Amino acid sequence: MTTSSGLLLIDKPAGLTSHDVVARLRKLFNERRIGHAGTLDPMATGLLVVAIGPSTRLLRFAQAQSKHYVGTVRLGTATDSLDADGVVVATAAVPELSPEQVNALAATMVGPSVRSLRWCPL
Asked: Core-most of 14, 42, 50, 93, by most CB within 10 Å?
């Protein structure tokens, strides 16, 4: 084993799990003690905070911080898996919605840990 230590900020691409990233880093650094501060789904892209060696004890501080997520929702499309990777099984027309209506509807679908939602038209 090496004596590598530190924090890495990884721009995780879609298609890899957080565990896949850690497994690759274990091989690259020849280090068993590698962890991450929060799991990203395989479809998700974005920042994955990774610690190596003795620095893994710092992850509890990163995990305690609030996180910010940005997502895209396609209204009027249903898939067999209920996510973007599925096969489209139905489509429907979507009425014109105001930002207030979108935010109110979205708020009904999130848990208590979400502090705010913001609609941003594309």
From this structure: 50
Burial class from Cβ neighbours inside 10 Å (0-12, 13-18, 19+) for residue 31 reads middle
Going from N- to C-terminal start, the domains of the chain cover: 6-63, 71-122
CA atoms within 13 A on the CB side of 66: 5
Helix (H) / strand (E) element for 24: namely helix 18-29
Per-state percent for the chain, helix, strand, coil, to nearest 5: 25, 20, 55
Reported as a single tens digit per residue, the pLDDT across 25-45 is 999 999 999 999 988 888 889
Rounded distance between C-alpha atoms, residue 36 and residue 57, angstroms: 11
Model pLDDT, residue 2: 56
CA distance 53 to 32: 8
11 flagged as catalytic: no
Q: Which residue in this structure is represented by tokens 């499309």?
A: 77
Q: Compute the half-sphere exposure of residue 69: CA atoms within 13 Å on the CB side of its CA.
A: 16
> Catalytic: which of 11, 20, 41, 85?
41
